[in-house]
Each structure stands twice: as C-alpha cells, then as structure tokens.
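Problem 12. The chain below contains 474 residues. Write out its predicted structure in token notation.
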Amino acid sequence: MSEYIPIIGLEIHAELKTNSKLFCRCPNTSSDLNTPPNTAICPVCVGLPGALPVLNKQAVASTIKLGRSLGSTIPPTTKWDRKNYFYPDLPKGYQISQYDQPLCLGGMLSWYDRTGTEHSVALTRIHLEEDTGKLVHPEQKPYSLIDYNRSSVPLLELVTEPVISSAEEARQFAEEYQHHLRELGIAEASMEKGQMRCEANISVVTESEAADPGRRLSGTKIEVKNLNSFRSLERAINFEIKRQSEALNQEDRLRQETRGWREVKGETYSMRAKETADDYRYFPEPDLGQLDLDRAEKNDQDGVSRQAVIAQLLKAQANPNFVHIVTDDPRRWSYIKLLLSDPNIHDESIALSVQWLSQDPNIVRFEPQEIVAVMTELSAGNIRTAALKAALASADRGGLKEALDQSQSGASDIDLGSVVRSVLAEHTSEVVRYRSGEVQLFGFFVGNVRKIIGYKADPSDITEILKRQLDQAK
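Solution.
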C-alpha cells in the first residue's frame, strides 16, 4: 500500500468590521445577530435595476493594512470584476470581486505552535469582494428563506500557496490568521457568527511526486467548502486525505470536484464538479473604475506585532504553552505587551510573569509595573510562592504590596532567599558537583536549609528557590 503526501491550500473569507457595506451606505450588521431579516438593505445591495455601487474607502484601507502587515506587495492599481454564477442568495446573478488585479499579492503568515516551533505559510493573494445574502432553512418546512442583510458586506478573501502539509498545520494557520485580524482591529472574525469561513483545497501525491517540483501539484484537487469551525477544518482535511489515499490505493479515479462537510457524520460529500475561472466568465465591473493605490494612506501597525511578542517571550525561555495562553486571551495579551514595555525587565522575570499570567487570573487586577517588581523579587527568592498566591487572592486592586507584606509576615519571618544563598555559599564544592550533573545532591541542600529553618517554610517554596538559585549560573 502506497503512502501519500497531502498538498493543502486554504481560502479564508472574513467579513471586515466597517460602519457600512462595501458598495452602499447600508449599515454593516454582521456583528449583530439580532438584526431583523432584510432591514439593512437598499436597492444597491439587493441588485435592483439601475442601482449603482459606490466603493467603501474604509474597506480598501483595511485590506491594504492587512496586506502590509503580512509583507504583501500592494500594486500601483487595482480593479473590480464581475464573477458570474447563479445562487438564490446572490440577487444580481453576479458578485463584484477581484480577479487578475487584487489589492494584495504574495506575503507570508508566520506563527509559533505550542511547542515553540515556528511555522510559515506563503500567501498567493488577498482580495476584496462583496458577501452574499444568507439562506435560512426552517425546520420541517418545504421552503427556504433569504436574508439580504449580509449582501454586500465587505469580505476579505485570503488564498495561501499549496504549501500546508497537514490538517493540524491548516488549523493552526486559520487560528493564527483570526488572531492577526483581531490584532489589527479590522475584523472580529467570529466563526460562530459566520464572520469567517474556511475552504480547503486538498490533493495527495506519492512521496516521489511530492519531492519533484514539477510533479508536486499533479494530484487531483478537491475543494471542501464552507467549513465554519477550526475543528471542522481539521476533521474535513483528515477525512479527505484518508478518502483520497484509499481511493488511489484501490486504483479508483478521483475527479476534481467541490465537496461539502457533514459535521455529524464526520464526512465530506460531493456537491458539484469544481468550477474554473472560465466558468465564472470574469469581466471588468463597468460601474467601478480602476483604483489608484499609489495614493493610499499607509496603515502601518501601531506597537509590536503578536509574533514579535511571542518570539521575545520564547527567547526569555518562557514555557511555549503558557505563551499561547497569555497571547490568545485579549485581556492577558494587552497586559503582556505592557509588561514587556518595561526596559528593565529581565528574562527570568518575563518567564515567571508569563507563568503567573497563564495560571492565576487575579494577577491582571494589578498594574504591570507592580507585577514586574514582584516577579523580580520572586526570581531572586525574596518572595514566597504561597505568600504571593494568598496576596493575589486577597488584595484589592492597587494594594498588592500591602497584602504581600502581610502574607509574608503572617506565614514566616524568615527570609528564605537569604537562607538558601547562605547554604549554597557554605557548600560550594557540592554546588559545583550538582551543576556538573550530580542532581541527587538536591536533597542534601534541602536538608541543610531545613536544619536552619525547621518547618517554618512551605516545602514547595524551598524547592522553587533552591532550583532557581542552583540553575542561575549553570
């Protein structure tokens, strides 16, 4: 039985967060699921004869902002095209999109996974188009309804190169892209609200074909449409890899087609033969002129990007899983950026801050500068872990130092950090042996600390401070 290598490319649609729609002044209600059906519409977005589109400047600026942040090339000009096809939620019988002159060409999205490994996926293009309406299928009814509120909402389409090698990497890419859109502030990109949808193009080839640039894309490409969760994206790709590999092993002939996804059954199903550009009969949109992008305002990102922050945290030896926890949560993400703005913070304090931010929700009640000072003291062994936990749980906002002083004095009057330092200074030869690999000597140090303080300190505090001070000069 032959082993096959998956070749995967993604197309991701995301609705932009704008005040109005792409080609009319109707409000963009994509974030409000309670908007009554067909109340945010006008002659333009329902395609009435004689209605003319007027381009939304904010949508174009947001798309260019995204492209610049991903290293895309912004061409000097762009144009709009009509993409012709019939579907009930497309009132005009065509969609205003972009074909051969998109707003953004090329680029790269990079990220770190939860093991700290860096990934990069090359982009083909990012273009702007109008969204369609929405079909509603009432249960137990022999008809469907159409809500045109979504019609003409500005829709980003990002297309990757076919360089993704696994379903897991595809899911990670989509998750990172969602983070990136939110970081830029141009899209909410909620998959639960239908603001972001994924499509996967999947083929499988033999190992020898995958290694040959001329034959790498020789497999039959299957597109899986409208995957509305990261879990569905990963499951659908894994299903297709298995289905296509088994078919080729049985010498069945695959055909290029578009397939849907049944979440309950966990399987794809055939919808139609895969369309090509010729099927859409693209031609320039006559009601919209060519757009000069040389005059477009630069929308460079403010501050440091998420990937730069993650790289800095990993460089400081922070736990990669903790790093993802603090950077995936908007509240802790903004907090860690403020924390890193302190020019005097040390790597050990950074790593400790990430650990505490990921594990103790109470910490975000306090000012970053105060936490930096506390983490510095903690890394030096001058604060007990148990005391800090108690202080974080009991202190009012802004009263951490007072609560910490009370917790420290209430638990023990002993300066544990100083005791540990004196024990290590007294037994320098054992310290050298421990740092050379004789880790069993750790119990020896614990015993000597115990001789001085008895049972007046938390054992976990002794262990933590000993490990930290023993590892400092390794």
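Discussion. The mean pLDDT is 88. Students who got a different answer should revisit the alignment rule from Section 12.3.
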